[in-house]
Amino acid sequence: MTPAAHDQLAILREQREELQAERLRIEKAHCLAVLDHITAKIRAACPEAVYVTFAFYTSRTLDLHGVLGAQPSPLGSCPELWDNRDGEDEHPLDDIADQIESDVQAALAPHSSPAWASVHRNAASDGNSWLLELPPPDRAARVAELVREHHPEATAIVVDGRAAGRVIEIFEGVADDGTQMRTPRPGWPPACDTALAGFIAQILALPALADRHLMPLPGDYTHPFGLGTSDQVHLMPLPPTA
Fold first, then answer.
1. pTM of this structure
2. Shortest CA distance to 159 belongs to which of 145, 173, 144?
């Protein structure tokens, strides 16, 4: 191979990798946009909706079972608001059943879809039954609520897109000497950490939300674990919570 051909191959390989990365970013954003779209339609017809339940197959297709409400207690089961398999009682969701099924399938079609962070097995069923928790109306507000359950004085968090949206540090106001109070390795249960990472990954994946809620780090910021920073590490100011 001549030097010119070698250089051309290197250029094309780099361009291909950049296009593949961009395609993956767009695919993730599209999955979440589809999920948000169908969530709005579900809640318009059934405001109490919290979960979509379905059977999922290795062919990456699904059968829609229905819609459930919020679990009333840790030991209680989620109330069934609509059963797609019954077909006896009329319900407003009957009119969009096919769209719910196709949109949820589209949102979960790629293995890399951020929507998978909101899926877990239906513990109330022994069969092929899964629950997709519908996204909150405001993901940033939900993140703030989860953070402040354990760090009430939190004003902002530092999130690392290189680590699947994990929170690496919390800003908790200003000390008496005027320095920023920082808490690395936030203390919360694993379930809270997983939920936060899922919501933050979705904010990172949706350009409109990322532009609205994520900011560059201060110029003098130092990583709490001595690591380098990059354009994937962001400051996320937390909105007020009630």
1. 0.87
2. 144
